[in-house]
Amino acid sequence: MNERLVIQPHRHADRTPAIPTFAEYQRLYRLSLDAPDHFWAQRAEQLTWFHRWHTVFDSDYEETDMGWFLGGRLNACYNCVDRHLNQRGDQTAVIWAQDEPGQYQRITYRQLKHHVARVANVLREHGVRKGDRVIVYLPMIPELIYTMLACARIGAVHSVVFGGFSSEAIRDRILDCGARLVVTANEGLRGGRRLPLKEAVDRAVDGLDQVATVLVVRRTDLEPPMRPGRDWWLDEECHKQRSTCSIEWMGAEDPLFILYTSGSTGKPKGVLHTTGGYLVFASYSHQVVFDYRDGDIYFCAADCGWITGHSYIVYGPLANGATTVLFESTPVFPDAGRYWQIVDDLQVNIFYTAPTAIRALVRAGDEYLARSSRESLRTLGTVGEPINPDTWLWYYDKVGRGRCNVVDTWWQTETGGILIAPLPGVTPMKPGSATLPFFGVRPLLVDDDGRELDGPAAGNLCLRHSWPGQARTIHGAHHRFHETYFSRFPGLYFTGDGCRRDEDGYYWITGRVDDVINVAGHRLGTAEIESALVAHEAVTEAAVVGFPHEIKGQGIFAYVILDRHYEATDAHELQGLLKEQVRHVIGPIATPDAILVAPGLPKTRSGKIMRRILRQIAAGEYRDLGDVTTLAEPDVVETLVESHRTLSAAARQD
Ligand code: PRX
User: Which of 23, 29, 191, 213 is in Cβ range 3.0-4.6 Å of 333 for a Cys bridge?
Assistant: First the structure.
């Protein structure tokens, strides 16, 4: 693949992009770095403030103390709903594309306001007040958006938990953030399958007196057991409520939400975003990076359990008065033409998904494209993991028929919004590169000793200066926040990603350089999976690494050492047990693809596991394992290679 390939941006005949030329991008980019106060104040004026800020920003990386729009007061729900009512009360705010193909439900801004107000009143009636945390474990249904916005309306802090997490993971999050109320559904529906959400919440809150209330959305006809005094049907509660609800005006730096994400050590951390800077950044980046215009139909196929759903299904689009599509199903239900069917049915102009989904569709074959025209599409986005140039080109050529701009957007839960991406119609594209920084973002590459690298180079991706969407802390663990992001390279925010910069200054993200793996766009810490495995009585030690996977980007490979006293069962059965163990502790998304029972692990004499060797073996790269003579037990490597060969041969036969 030719990495020098440059594809010129497309201009659509009837329109000039929001940023009209590449020279204008460069000028504004300079301005955003040289005069950030001026630049961001102008952007912030596009929102509605109850009280204007006195200081645009005050940040100290050394002290890990960042603040934007200080003194300002606003409300995220008001900005996403109420302020649009005069002009767009009857415009569709949300199109819910249900699991069942061809079933759509449209919700106008006025209806959205009524639903949100009712849910907000229910929350208040159940004792939720400003600053309280609410756990949201819902499928992709309108009530998910209502609940997020209802929390924002009354100043509560939502923490959405992705449906692929287990009861234990929900429980951990409830405990960590101190939530007393959980919102869930009787069941979810996804790809024709029923997901037992209420059952999972019941297990999560079992014996937890802290949780006083569970609100249950009725998605199917299932009648789960309801514990009197604790469990309430949300629809019944809403019926009793008025469709107006007063707004809690929030300080710009008051928390808006907590979202848990994996790091290289310990349990997932509750990344905390605040109100003003986050909303300014999410809405402005949504407008510019997707070239969003009034009247566009915008479809982001992510899940609201992740940051992409927060910023680019809910807050960014709704703050911009957009029509946003909420998709309940999967890209392959009932077949691999599902996205394109929706694009044609709803006349979608902007479509945003993850490389893993695109790779699955490439594999399914081009025939699924033939049934749709996709003529309405203008901008195609990707996010979540590096996109290989072949996949990029398929997206561009086949899905976009060579007429759409593709925006490969690099960002993270912690960044709140997109930081590196082309601007549609303006930035020349290179397949596989996230291209150039967004306004106010100053990326830099440093070597392992923290020396800044100039010009074309490869190194650790860091960011200098704060931007409005930056996470402010980890809930309840500010020290960990500092340690994780600001201590490795003092004075800089360290992203955890490796990256290359080419001679044109374009950025090519190469993947994580820490012990975080990216599986089908889901971010998982290897340490989390290891502790789930060693919690099983059979396992004394485990080491988990990622390996290249054709569809998922990375797969999960676990090396386990069994307890001497463990009565060996059949290898197949053991694998099943251990996979079940991980599903139980974390959830199905963390299920290992392969488990190898190892006699030992390659360790240095000081006891450090040589993960590089484990990664190479898991990838089947047995040659060039480097110098293993410094290991405590060099012979282990040979045995692991043999076991891996056997495992791979068996997998091929399956
Ligand atoms: O490794 C990068 C990868 O996803 C990580 C962030 O994961 P998460 O916090 O779950 O947020 C994902 C959605 C914003 C990053 O550290 N990543 C994200 N986008 C890209 C990417 N890697 C390469 N190219 C991207 N466009």
Answer: 191
